[in-house]
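Progress against Task 2.4 (sequence-to-structure conversion) is shown through the following example record, which the project officer requested during the mid-term review.
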Amino acid sequence: MGAFLWMTGADSRLSTIVQVALPLAVMGWLLAQWMIWLSVFGAYTTLFVLLIMLLFATLPFSVALLPHVLPEGYQWVMALVALLHLAVLLVATHRQWRNLQLAMKQGAEVLTGVVCRVHLSSQRIESARITDENQLSNGAKRGLWGGAASVMAYPLLRDWLGNEALPAAGACLGFVVAVWLHVRVASRWLAMSCFLMSLERQTGHRFVPSQLEWLESQRQAHWLGRFLRRVWPCPVPLNTKVS
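Structure tokens generated for the chain above:
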């Protein structure tokens, strides 16, 4: 968002809302409605989410503070940093792709992705999120402690580095966090999505969540869901058998 505001050069709050915030809000609302009512949450949806993550989170976060750090006339470094992040993403994606190919050659029936497991024989994507209450509670506690530590770190770093060096430290932190997200999350999403789409072209079957039937039943319980499905039928056959 900061990169979009910087590129538009909006001088007033009203022009910022009209030029940037309002169009993004409308597009975001339309995309959210598509995901809620029509998406089967397969490989294509993952690519959409990945694109949103890159455009509105990791890439802007990696260059957001650079205008406050770079000397006058060196704004081209922002483009170089963005290209460097994309190069890291592509290299990490290639590595993840090779790992998926190796798993297939070794006869794996289940591929592990980001908080999910993909069952190749049934073309179903199973959620692998933590459900244990103790682990969830411990994770929430660690998150609270991490948030408190980050709040305390700001005045300490300001006193230690000074107000002039603090933007440089923030720019380095944003760069490192963005690289970590590209290597640990975005590359795995991209590799898995492209790998599943290649399998879909070979077999002619879409990979869908294991709870797709439940999701469609919830959509059909609402008049808008029934209307939208008449206009845009579900792209995959549903298993109507109750297990």
